[in-house]
Amino acid sequence: MSRGPTHVKASREDVRLGANKFSERQPIGTAAQSQDKDYKEPPPPPLFEPGELTSWSFYRAGIAEFMATFLFLYVTVLTVMGVSKSDSKCSTARKLSLTRALFYMVMQCLGAICGAGVVKGFGKALYQTKGGGANVVAPGYTKGDGLAAEIMGTFVLVYTVFSATDAKRSARDSHVPILAPLPIGFAVFLVHLATIPITGTGINPARSLGAAIIYNKSHAWDDHWIFWVGPFIGAALAALYHQVVIRAIPFKST
User: Fold this and answer.
1) Domain housing 163
2) Which of 28, 78, 152, 167 is most deeply packed, by most CB within 10 A?
3) What CATH number does residue 209 fall under?
């Protein structure tokens, strides 16, 4: 059956209209998506916020960081020593000013020292024989192995935190009841399974510092730099990956 001129002309008109309706050129990244947002991007934090120093919420948050790291060290040091098989962690996921970030770091380090000290007080003999739960590169592994394990472990944890607390994901999947602590806790559990045999699992410089200070043996300090450099690199890579690749922040249209 042959097609008449009218039918061919109509088909060409349909193609022309479709080409005009759906442009072949699409912007890169998030800008390609609809600009109608049902969520709000958090504002960038200020570098310094002197007003925070007079706010009770600032010190409440610091005390919470202290207690969270205290309990984290208490549980993880016992875990590494083989006395306990459980694990727990409390994480803070938000954008911070430099003032608040530095305050949190100090409080976490103090909490880590106190938590490791309590474990040592329970049984000094066992504490010494088990290495105090201090992070060291295990025999049979190189420093490069330990550094890579800390980078990857921290990357997994920080990327999970970013994903679980992402405002856009929460708005998009609001019909799915997901509690952020569940995937974060599961990530901590998996990272511990993978890296305890290699480094004892640091993934948090405060955790490594507290255990090293209380144990205070030379071999606990030999590889200590790994447990600062590794987590900082892993966290930076996770933040870069989430912001540039997943969220495509640099490509957003203004």
Assistant:
1) 50-251
2) 78
3) 1.20.1080.10
Backbone conformation region of residue 248, classed left if phi is above 0, alpha if psi is from -120 to 50, else beta: left
What does each of the 254 residues of the chain score in pLDDT, given as a tens digit? 555 555 555 555 554 555 454 444 444 444 444 445 555 666 667 667 777 777 878 788 888 788 877 776 666 666 555 533 333 434 444 567 778 888 888 888 998 899 888 888 887 888 888 888 889 999 999 999 999 999 999 999 999 888 888 776 655 555 555 677 788 888 888 898 899 899 988 999 999 999 999 998 888 899 999 999 999 999 999 989 888 888 776 666 54
pTM of the model: 0.65
The verdict on residue 25 lying in a domain is no
Non-local CB neighbours of 69 within 8 Å, separated by 6+ positions:
107, 108, 109, 110, 111, 112, 115, 204, 206, 207, 210
Answer whether 77's CB lies under 8 Å from 130's CB. Answer: no
CA distance 235 to 144: 18
Question: Is residue 68 one of the residues assigned to a domain?
Answer: yes
**Closest by CA position to 140, among listed 131, 149, 132:** 149
Counted domains in the chain: 1
The answer to whether residue 43 sits within a structural domain is no
Q: Is residue 36 part of a domain?
A: no
Is 56 in contact with 50 (CB distance < 8 Å)? no
